[in-house]
Amino acid sequence: MTKHNIDFKKARQFLKNPPLGCFSEYSTAYAITNENLRFVTELSDLSSARVLTAAGSGDHPIFYALAGAAHIDTFDISFCAKTIMDIKTTAISAFKSFWYFGLVHELYDEKHVCKLARILQIKNDLPDDTREFIEKTNGCRLFAKGCFPFQYKSYLPTIEEYKIIQERIRGPFNFVWTDICKLRDNLEPDSKYDVINISNIFHYRKDAKTTAKIMNGLEYHLAPGGQIISYNSCPRVPNREDWKIIQYKTLEKDKVFVLQKIR
Ligand SMILES: C[S@@+](CC[C@H](N)C(=O)[O-])C[C@H]1O[C@@H](n2cnc3c(N)ncnc32)[C@H](O)[C@@H]1O
Q1: What residues are paired with 229 via a beta bridge?
Q2: What is the pLDDT of residues 217-248, one digit of tens each?
Q3: How close is the Cα of 261 to the center of ligand 1, in Å?
Q4: Is the pLDDT of residue 192 over 50?
Q5: If we measure between CA atoms, which residue out of 102, 106, 88, 104 comes closest to residue 166?
Q6: How far, in Å, from the CA of 217 to the mean position of ligand 1?
Q7: What structural domains and CATH numbers belong to the chain?
């Protein structure tokens, strides 16, 4: 496992007073996805697929595992995304579904994550950096974006899905802590993926130069015929002639784009 260089003082300072709408190395993570991940994972043929996905709330890799992906790696700009992902994968191994669902509800907006009874039960099994992070940021809200707990139901796995997830997830996912602009430099140089899911990241990336840089980096790590999945509530996909864009409408205000390189 990669050793991450966490600046705890900086993390605490940031999390005590997080600026609105900003994603950065310690920005608050989503406690639960607000995307239709059952729909998204159906867009790709996942049999023997290698997937790279934004970690987000941890639900992206979890739903890719549920859908049968053979190998899943994750990346995110925020260490809080790794934290929620590690908490979920550890809890999945330890807890029955109702206890897991309870934990996901409790984590929302919680300032003392490391003191929760359900966390104390799994704390020793968490990856070391994640355990240290929740201890040293005690008093800060780590997971507060996205859905409110009363909206959780359709975004949580069902009990049947949870059983499959438990069979398929046996440990933490690999995590690359990086801004998407530097993803290419931070992945294993020869790694190739059939699916790269960049979630809602283009939503926040507007200028053509940055978008082109991101696409070039992603293209380098795409296997032949591979897809980039971009979920945007306010679509800003690159307008480039060398990428084929198939647009899908999903939820009322959301769209999912599947992009494929025309070779
Ligand atoms: C924009 S958010 C959307 C979350 C999502 N709707 C969900 O269901 O979890 C997706 C994730 O991308 C990460 N992110 C945002 N900007 C990023 C960037 N420039 N590079 C890498 N990750 C980024 C955020 O930290 C967040 O975890």
Answers
A1: 197, 258
A2: 888 999 988 898 887 754 455 555 566 666 55
A3: 23
A4: yes
A5: 88
A6: 17
A7: 24-261 (3.40.50.150)
